[in-house]
Amino acid sequence: MPSSRRKQRKQRKHPYRRLHLPDNAPFELKPSPGKGWGAFATRPIKTGEVILQESPYFAVPHFTVPYVVEDATRLRLAMALGFWRLTADQLQQFNLLRKHESAQFPDNVTALCNSFTLDAVDGEHQNRGIFPLQSRFHHSCVPNSRVSPSGEQQRSLSRIATRDISQGEEITFCYLPLLEYNTRRERQLALVELVCKCEACLPGTPFQEASDMRRRLLHGLHYFLTGRDIDGKKLSDDSSPIIFPELKRAAENREITRP
Q: Pfam families, from UniProt (predicted)?
């Protein structure tokens, strides 16, 4: 049997073919060259249109990495309880998910690499939700969608088009908000397990160079106006996007008045 026919047969039997998509979903799951399976628009999608709204199967406490022993124990218990509460259909759907193109998750905790942070309901404690479909969309440093909390108590996630998306185009989003302000080199250091091949990551092109310049400018403006980095933290003089120490300290102390 020719290799192309074997490949087509393998794709038809792929577990993602059995994932339950909403009846009105404007996308389908299919192979994305070099990236496993991704989501592709089945019709034109307008800017601002909701592509997918999904509630989590369950949520677990969000801990920073590396975990301390107590956090790891609580996390495993929360994951075990979450899976125990799943319906038979939900468990069957979760078991269809893959870490990479064909590898299953080695354990339940590893599945958190496909989870999303939910807004803190009490203003302090955040959770991470397991979203089987939202986690099927690939990363791009030049994305065409974003995810935003929605629904009751902001417990659901809506995927919204940030620009017009053509039929057949892959639907992508930026995995980490910080990356939107990082240069190509900074993104490579942050995404150690991901090789991005979007326009902004192809080295030496006019688009990539202009993208880096734009991101440096936006990063500096954000720090200048807020006195903090994107994650809300102060940076050292060596890593700050503001190269003048006096100006940096003035921004951090909120001593800069706006006209």
A: SET
Q: Which two tokens stand for residue 242?
A: 């503001």
pLDDT digits (tens, 9 = 90+) for 8-54: 565 667 888 899 999 999 999 999 887 888 999 999 999 999 999 99
Long-range contacts of 203-210 (CB under 8 A, 24+ apart): 208/184
Strand order in the sheet with 156-161: 50-54, 156-161, 145-150
- Sequence spans of domains, the chain: 9-175, 177-258
Strands of the chain (E only): list them.
Answer: 27-32, 36-41, 50-54, 59-61, 115-118, 127-130, 138-139, 145-150, 156-161, 172-173
Q: Which of 35, 170, 68, 177 is nearest to 117 (CA)?
A: 177
Q: Give pTM, 2 decimals.
A: 0.81
Instruction: Report the alpha-carbon distance of residue 120 to residue 118 in Å, rounded.
Output: 6
- Chain length of the chain: 259
Residue 116 to residue 59: CA distance in whole angstroms: 9
Report the CATH fold assignment for 9-175. Answer: Beta-clip-like (2.170.270)
Which stretches within 136-226 are classed as H helix? 184-190, 206-226
